[in-house]
Amino acid sequence: MMTVEELVIKAREDGASDIHIICNLPPKYRKSGRLENMSDEVMSFEDCVDATRWLAGSAYDEFERVGELDLAGTYGGNRCRVHIFKQQGIPSIALRLLSETIPKLDTLGLPPAVMDLTKLHKGIVLVTGETGSGKSTTLAALLDCINHTRYDHIVTLEDPVEYVYKPDKCAINQREVGKDTKSFASGLRASLREDPNVILIGEMRDTETIETAITAAETGHLVFGTLHTGSAADSIDRIVQVFPEGAQQQIRMQLSMTLVAVLTQQLVPKKGGGRALAAEMMVVTDAIRNLIRTGNTPQIANAVATSTDIGGQTMDQALVKLVRTGQITREDALHYAKEEAYIKKYAI
Predict the structure, then answer these.
(1) What is the CATH topology of the domain spanning 4-97?
(2) Which residues pair with 278 in a beta bridge?
(3) CATH no., domain 105-313
(4) CATH 3.40.50.300 placement within the chain
(5) Over residues 85-108, mean pLDDT
(6) Segment 195-209, tens digit of pLDDT
């Protein structure tokens, strides 16, 4: 049976993004969004336990007690993010291969307005999308651009640390939840005493983290955060709905004053193999601030669609561009679209 390191080497050579190790199945990897077998050999219970012990190391007892474990490390010469979990009492492993180098921001296929985000000095920027949509890569590219162009202090809060930055003009502290700090909320509170200019929050998922992120933005910090949402409007609703009803209007007011931009991503199968990045870009305008304040989030999509002069674009507009430039098929654009009628009308 292939070792974890051998699986990582093969996955990297074959251009795969993820590896799955599951008992009674062959090891699988994800290529161009599809799962494929890596070999004909089936993983036994003992194979899964051995791989888990090797990856978890001294944290194996914690995994046995809790039933899941997040970690990151370098295996087979490639940095990886690893999630180990139990299913039916048996360990399974999901391993994400990370790029060995942080890509340049202008190579990712993002809307041009994204470059302007690296020039901001305060406010909240959200990068959203489903798991595996490239959020971590985009955030790493954004921070690394700041690292090479500004003289600032960057603090990241991650679970686990994925990309490792090499400080250039910036001072950088990367803190891992569970190892360097108890939680996102406690690490974020502490970061405000660490003289940061830029703060990255791996995930904004509870009231305390969101409240502190808003406070950080209000006090002159630039905050980058992530959410698992499919549009700018969904992101605002998700944040507001975390809070009890009595506090939601206050959060809408604060969010309308601190939110600067929302970038939503998804990866779409590319003609000839690989995947193309489709991205919605919401640049917060006075009109959008008013929609956030009043709770009229369903109207945000229209506001984004009419903000192309300042760099905004909806997901459907992004998909149409990919069809027109020959990167994706019209059928795939329809599958990933918010409004199929828009694609049918303009993706020609």
Answers:
(1) Beta-Lactamase (3.30.450)
(2) 266
(3) 3.40.50.300
(4) 105-313
(5) 93
(6) 999 999 988 889 999
